[in-house]
Fold these 2 entries.
Entry 1:
Amino acid sequence: MSTYRNLQQNSETEASVVSIDKISNDKQQGICESRRTDHQAQLKFVHPAAEIKPDASISLTFDKEAGKSRLATRDHFGQLYVQKPFYPEGFEVCHIVLVHPPGGVVGGDRLEIANHVGADASVQITTPGAAKWYRSNGHISYQNVTLDVKTGGSMEWLPQETIFFDDAQVELVQSINLEKNAVYIGCEIFCLGRTAFGESFNTGQIRQKVTICREKKLIWYEQLNLRGGSEGMRSSLILADKTVCATLLAVSDSICSSELINTLRGLTADLDKGTGMLGVSQVKSVIVARYLGNSSEVARIVMLKLWGVLRPALLGRKAEVPRMWNT
């Protein structure tokens, strides 16, 4: 099954994957260009108030020199940092840990993250722990993530789970821009409410937009508009009364046969026994896997198992669990 079904967008829609074929080529290029040239425009796309300067931002640039993928430049403002790059699998892949020292985001905070991967460079980014979005104080919190990957480069975006407290008001934008032969693998795990403390996501709102562009052409467009305690949380078309949802997206020009998708679906059949609901789909060069359940630990195991198949297939590298996911 798929967490977010293809729905016609209207005032009642909670989640949708918009058909790219219904968007004109000019508009597709316009969406991709606006994402590449103006990071603030990405947030404006969600909410006009997001034009305000972010409370914390970080911009990283990576390149490849003498066979080594390296962090070439970093520019940060506020409480967003990176630890020293490390190379557990050799100099081919630069591993980065993105740190937000406060540990949580309060109402009104704005975070902006931009990562630019140069030609043939390979980067894996993760976080040291779960991200937390606290109960709203009457203001909306924002996060804008931009990932640009040049020709032949690769980006693995593997943050740990995100916990939304009850009554959180959050708007998220993620824009991935890929050039020819660039590869992207990304995973997000959303936990709705602090179930360990008996808390449910009964009030608040989470809005999210994800776009992927290949050579300035839009190939993936997805949005989520989830209201705490709404029918969408209970509907079998959206969350089916589950508290944890996870999505893994993989994009590569080499996804051209049914062998990989069949392998993933075979794996999901084994993982799906009593763990929740799990499904895998392919839309041309994009593979998407969805998980619905009530355990972030199970979601993590499921996503890592799928990533363990995708990484060797798309990047030609052994799938070793990121160090921070084991701490």
Entry 2:
Amino acid sequence: MTQTIAPRVRTLVLLLLAAACALLAAAAPASAHAALTGSDPRQGAVVDKAPAQVSLTFSESVSMDDDSLRVLDPKGKRVDDGRPSGTGGTTYSVKLHAGLPDGTYTVAYQVVSADSHPVAGAYTFSVGAPSETSVSVSGQAAGGGFVGGLYGVGRYVSYAAFAVLVGGAAFVLACWPRGSGVRVVQRFVVSGWLALTAATLLLLLLRGSYTGSGKAADIFDLSLLGEVLQTKAGAALVSRLLLLAAAALFIAVLFGAYDKREDEEKRDLTFGLAVGGSVVAAGLAATWAMSEHASVGLQAGLAMPVDVVHLIAVATWLGGLTALLVALYRGPADTPVPALAVRRFSRVAFGSVVALVATGTYQSWRQLGSWTAFTDTRYGQLLLVKIGLVAVLVGVAYFSRRWTAQLAEAVPAVAGQRKKERVAASGGRGNDEAKASEKTRTSGKTGTSEKTAAAAKTGTAEKSGTAAKTDSAERTAAAAKTATAEKGEAAGKTSGAGKASGAGKNSSAGKGSGAGKGSGGSKRAAQLARQRAAVDAARQKRQRDSDPHRFGLRRSVLAEAGVAVVLLAVTTLLTQTEPGRTEEEAKAAGAASAATAAPSTGAVTLDMPFDTGGQNGKGVVRVELDPARVGSNDLHLYVERPDGTAFDIPEVKVALTQKAKDIGPLPVAPDHITTGHWSASQVQIPMAGDWEVAVTVRTSDIDQVTLSKNAQIG
């Protein structure tokens, strides 16, 4: 049975690994987790005169260097001062050279979002009128190519190795303490530590090129490595390496001092190892939580500990499952996984699944924000695939629990049968030993009789001499015959002294031969013992593998492990995909920008100069209402200085009133989109007529003014 199972297992594992690699290879470059939600000038805009600066607004904070934000003229020449800076919140700007001529300009950006993923893109705007440009805005992608693919593989290996390390150690401590002495389990956990360490070092080397040029030649650039170490992602990777050093000490104690203790002594050490291992596992999980999705966005303070619990639950479940699979397939025959250990893991897995569902539900709400994001965004679609895989995994685990229950019921009967076999075997060996002892005693007596007779005959020959030839010759002939029969030598001498000497020689030779036979017998006994042990081990393995309950458990656990491999690949893709909430916000901002850049027929534009009397208190407020009809409308509000540059003010309010019908004021709370730009969608106007649009502008804590103009709503 096992001869046919092994090739199938190897084939299935190879197929699952190939599927995981295909998922990773088919993945697009790491999606922007910080989306561009606004710009000034806007994409495709045509302005009358060149702006003093270009501003970009992202959905979350980003990190920049001197080359992160560039503005290129139609010939591809850089026209910015090369010193981008933040202007507050998530808006970043770079100043332009004075006196720029008319034409089409390209804005190119490449930044790193707060969740450690690279973001790149480009767009154009025109001064005076559009013109031809030699700059291409296509192919602006970050995190792709060979370096991006290698970085994605490194991320997958690090997740899988973390699960193997944490889950394997948890399986030994919580489910099978005796497994700390099983060589295959030791190798499994140590391989997880080695893989996680190697993957972390690889990610640290790739990080600079991954977020920058994407060139393989920059992987070993020490200057880039120095810059990486100063970033949040670099600090997280270094912290992971330090925690792995502590994990190495934990592994040494688990498979060293812990394994050598007796069962009573292990209980005290188990508690200490459990506490220390939990701290190390939480620290390793935090290196992901504090540098990726959970560290930015909505409720980051709560999301990070929830993400730590989520990662540990996944590792305990999937890593422990893989450890169980290895022990079932590769464990020694004399140390099989007991049914008690399988039952314990079943309970641990159930608790992990409960924690996984609870934390996963919260993370899904936080990253999606709406039900439509499940189907309208790539993140939501991948999340649906992950949920389906988890459901399949739980379904297969149900069958594993059934096999576990049947295995537990079959264990007493199997144990009794094995006990009877051991008793029978020991009885048979006792009979053989008794027979061997009896033979030894018989041969000992025979040898003693022979030696005594030979001595007596020799003495008679010496005393009688040659006088009593007849009687002595008969006895001498008998002695010669006896010596020839027992030792294989011929004594044909006729003198009494010669016979005596021959008898002495034969006696000495007999003793030497006996010693040789004793040495050969001990080697033969050792060889027989080894053969007997090998036969016993093979018999135990056959009995173990022929157990239908254990065989069924092995198959179901193998299926679980296969689904887990694909599940980890989908999880890795999720961490590289833009969250659904961010993607929808970016789409909404893009739609608003497009609507503003090309207002539809019927839109109303109102310009209202203001002066609050304080510093930066002068400017112009522009209100655009589209389509200016009864029902739902989009409102955009822009604040500009007298020179036409956009700027932010602390507060702006809008209210709509129709005095003829005594309706209003109807308040409108626009959302801040980018520098000097506010927007509100689905502004409801109940009836046609002449409406007053009042705008309250506050430029400081005490300086504010309310402006109003009328607009005709059709």
